[in-house]
Write a structure and sequence with these properties.
Layout: H1 16-22, E1 26-31, E2 34-39, H2 44-51, H3 59-74
Antiparallel strand pairs: 1-2
Protein name: SpoVT-AbrB domain-containing protein
Organism: Natronorubrum tibetense GA33
Domain SpoVT-AbrB: 4-45
């Protein structure tokens, strides 16, 4: 873990190792007890495609399965 502090203009500089590993863009998530920086991929669509390469079903099939599961859970 690394400490960082704000400069006189309110800017936070991340250590070089962090920037090299995760990139230069982050989404800031406010939690009840702090904040979390979530890296934003240079091309978010490519990142999603990479994340779901092992999914064999189409979006329509996934949507239909989710709909059926929701109906079953609701007792219909």
């Amino acid at each position: 873990m690394t400490d960082a502090s704000l400069d006189d203009r309110g800017r936070l500089t991340l250590p070089k190792e962090v920037r090299e590993r995760y990139g230069d863009r982050y989404h800031i998530v406010q939690l009840h007890d702090g904040i979390k920086l979530v890296p934003i991929a240079d091309d978010p669509l490519d990142a999603l495609r990479d994340e779901f390469t092992d999914v064999d079903k189409s979006a329509d099939e996934l949507r239909e399965n989710a709909r059926k599961a929701a109906l079953d859970e609701a007792g219909r």
